[in-house]
Design brief:
With 372 residues, the protein is of the alpha/beta class. 58% of the residues lie in helices and 13% in strands. It has three domains: 1-160, no CATH class; 163-244; 249-369, CBS-domain. It has helices spanning 21-41, 47-78, 104-135, 139-159, 167-180, 183-210, 214-244, 266-277, 314-317, 333-343, 362-369; strands at 6-11, 14-18, 83-89, 92-97, 281-284, 294-297, 326-328, 347-352, 355-361. The strands form three sheets. The chain has a four-stranded mixed β-sheet with strand order 1-2-3-4, with helices on both faces. 37% of the residues are buried.
Length: 372
């Protein structure tokens, strides 16, 4: 669902990334706080001070979302469910599960952990706001505490909506799963409700926009579209995983992929490989050998002076194939699919120890199972 984004930090074994779309949200939040909230609650300050407070509000937003998603991730780890990382994007954040929960109990506890943490933060900041008002703290600090309390309260309540894949929708799925003993049917029902909620938000957005509030209306429409698409995709991913079962990657991979010799010039890489095959990633292997020497990505050509392309070699820019672009031949195909969806890489290098076993693509995986 998400690309790789930019890495912010790593904590407790979880990597936190930010999608480029989140920058728009950060700017919008900073602007609304600097131009709206803080001038009303703390008048008479300099414009630059309001923007600094807006930045503080954005930092508080980041921390609130990260704590919410960390709560999901820590519970998931408790039940042995792998989490690929935490990503911040235009509509908030998501803990990237690489597999389905092992049982309804795990699903429910993991889902409820996020809203509970947000309620706790809302109570904390609300208490600080009350204490600050009683003790005469600066108005701007009280306003900041109010914003963070309100933000976390809204985050908790919105996520409790029974609209899959929101937390409330996952809690509903857990209940249906425990009742029906069928994760497929439970996911279908929860996803259809999520889709319905998405359509409802789109309708609310259209009505709001036509009522003279185009910006607010647009946000409701975008959130509704996201929820609708996310519900559909979550169900489709489950169906694909079920169809794949425990089938290994080796069943779908190409055993004779296009490889690049480390002595190939960058000019030849571009003209004889990129222009011909249109791949973004190529395994680097010496002629007549099967030892994987590394990987070269076409993005590595960007920024290099074109006059160096005649003499520079692939070995000069190739790097070790990282965990986000490689998978072992005996790995489950469903895990490869999850990796592709999480990283946005539709092409993975398949390894067998230090040997290149092949390449598997998203098209390879979907060819046998189709689109649900």
């Amino acid at each position: 669902m998400f690309g790789r984004g930019f890495r912010l930090f790593r904590l407790l074994g979880f990597e936190v990334r930010v999608d480029p779309s989140w920058i728009f949200l950060a700017l919008l939040v900073a602007w609304s706080l600097a131009q709206g909230l803080f001038p009303v609650y703390a008048p008479g300050m300099r414009v630059g001070s309001y923007w600094l407070l807006g930045l503080a509000g954005v930092i508080g937003l980041v921390l609130s979302i990260v704590i919410h998603e960390f709560s999901h991730s820590l519970v998931a780890r408790r039940f042995g469910l792998p989490i690929g990382g935490i990503s911040l994007f235009l509509f908030g954040g998501v803990a990237e599960m690489t597999d389905e929960p092992p049982a309804p109990k795990a699903e429910f506890l993991m889902a409820v952990a996020g809203p509970l943490s947000s309620f706790a933060l809302a109570g904390l900041f609300g208490g600080l706001e009350s204490a600050g008002s009683a003790q005469g703290w600066p108005n701007w600090l009280i306003a900041l505490m109010f914003y963070l309390a309100y933000l976390n309260l809204v985050l908790a309540i919105f996520n409790l909506l029974p609209a899959y894949p929101l937390d409330g929708g996952r809690m509903l799925r857990a209940g249906l799963w425990a009742w029906r003993r069928d994760i497929h049917k439970a996911t279908y029902i929860a996803a259809m409700l999520g889709r319905g909620f998405g359509i409802g938000l789109i309708v609310i957005g259209v009505v709001t926009a036509l009522s003279g509030y185009p910006v607010s209306g647009l946000w409701w429409i975008l959130i509704g579209l996201f929820l609708r698409v996310a519900a559909d995709n979550s169900y489709k991913q489950l169906v694909l995983r079920e169809r794949m079962g425990g089938a290994p990657v080796s069943r779908f991979m190409s055993e004779r992929p296009v490889t690049v010799n480390p002595d190939t010039t960058l000019r030849d890489l571009l003209e004889q490989y990129v222009y011909k095959y249109h791949h973004k990633l190529y395994p680097v292997v010496a002629d007549g050998q099967d030892e994987l020497l590394g990987c070269v990505n076409t993005s590595q050509l960007k920024g290099l002076p074109t006059e160096t392309w005649e003499r520079a070699r692939v070995r000069d820019i190739s790097r070790s194939c990282d965990p986000e672009t490689t998978v072992t031949a005996d790995s489950a195909a469903a895990q490869a699919l999850s990796l592709m969806l999480r990283t946005g890489n539709s092409r993975l290098v398949v390894t067998d120890g230090h040997r290149l076993a092949g390449v598997v693509t998203l098209k390879d995986l979907l060819r046998d199972f189709g689109t649900p």
